[in-house]
Design a protein that fits this description.
Blueprint lengths: L2 H23 L2 H10 L2 H25 L6 H17 L4 H13 L4 H30 L3 H26 L1 H11 L4 H18 L5 H29 L5 H16 L9 H12 L4 H30 L3 H12 L4
């Protein structure tokens, strides 16, 4: 087997294991019955909030890009990235949206990619914050709490490292040129890419822009919290906002660990597992997770497909390009 298969295999095994565990724990006819009997009004409201979440997420990313691209381009490109992540391995959607947006704007791929990295690091921080906030009300899970604290520390270290790189950009560039002076082609091509990358990180040193980014990101996560609470309440009348808080934090972590494309199995296992810990029936909890999955597929599928059509692209063609782009990074 080649290296790509070895990298793909652990995530596939984790997903398949969790899917097998879910199928052993739940009664699928009961799951489908729960989906048919859920509160349609709450599900409709949660669906509208999921659309609003996508619209707001485009504002989050555009803020990191200093509002230079048109909002429409950012919205459809973000959806294209989520669509790619749902079907392609190795989270190639992140590279995909940097590549696609670079073709529509004057921004380079290397300048766009750092904004996606910052966005993802802060997302991880919010997921840890939500999980840590909910854990004391769920159960006395010392290990889970320590894990969440470690994630928060790593997020802060990551943002701190990015900020230092941006602040010391000239010194970093000078060091690169010194170390690469024997390889002129690497120095020329790599220097341009590194300079653009560091320029993209400068947003961390622009207090007003970064605070505005954090404001929109916080609003985006609060919106997601409300949507997850409404989805849980549509199936469990006893659900409280805590269910949305804990479910969202767990689902975000489930989507971040190695898995098949689209976090298949890990997302459902984490989200449904969180609801079961709160007292929910396993079969109905899976119905909630599947609803969240369907909303995600619909939003990324519709807006992502429109974006791909606007760009004259297809999943297969983009996959070929992204694999070629990713190989030099391996």
């Amino acid at each position: 087997m080649n290296k790509a298969i070895w990298r793909w295999l652990p995530g596939a095994l984790i997903s398949l294991l969790l899917i097998a565990l879910l199928l052993r724990m739940v009664d699928l006819p009961k799951t489908f019955q729960a989906m048919a009997q859920a509160d349609e009004r709450l599900l409709a409201l949660a669906f509208l909030l999921s659309l609003l979440w996508l619209a707001l997420r485009a504002i989050v990313w555009r803020t990191l890009l200093r509002n230079r691209p048109a909002y429409r381009d950012v919205l459809f490109t973000a959806a294209e990235g989520y669509l790619l992540n749902n079907f392609l391995p190795f989270r190639l959607g992140e590279l995909g949206r940097a590549l696609l947006l670079s073709r529509k704007t004057s921004l380079s791929f290397s300048a766009i990619l750092p904004t996606i990295l910052v966005e993802r690091v802060v997302d991880l921080g919010f997921s840890a914050l939500f999980l840590l906030s909910a854990i004391p009300f769920v159960w006395n899970a010392g290990m889970a709490r320590r894990f969440g604290v470690i994630v928060v520390i790593l997020v802060l270290l990551g943002l701190g490292t990015f900020a230092l790189l941006a602040r010391a950009s000239q010194q970093v560039l000078a060091l690169f040129r010194k170390l690469s002076q024997r390889w002129l082609r690497l120095q020329r091509i790599g220097g341009r890419g590194l300079e653009a990358f560091l320029s993209g990180l400068n947003v961390l040193n622009e207090g007003r822009v970064f605070l505005l980014f954090l404001f929109w990101m916080t609003l985006n996560w609060l919106l997601a919290w409300l949507a997850y609470f409404l989805m849980a309440r549509a199936y469990f009348p006893q659900a409280t906002p805590l269910w949305g808080l804990f479910g969202l934090g767990a689902a975000a972590f489930g989507g971040a660990i190695p898995s098949l494309p689209g976090a298949i199995g890990t997302f459902e296992g984490a989200f449904a597992g969180a609801l079961v810990l709160l007292g929910g029936d396993p079969s109905t909890a899976l119905a909630v997770a599947l609803t969240a999955r369907l909303y995600n597929y619909f939003n990324s599928g519709v807006f992502g497909a429109i974006g791909l059509a606007r760009d004259g692209e297809s999943l297969s063609h983009l996959y070929t390009q992204l694999r070629a782009l990713r190989n030099p990074m391996e």
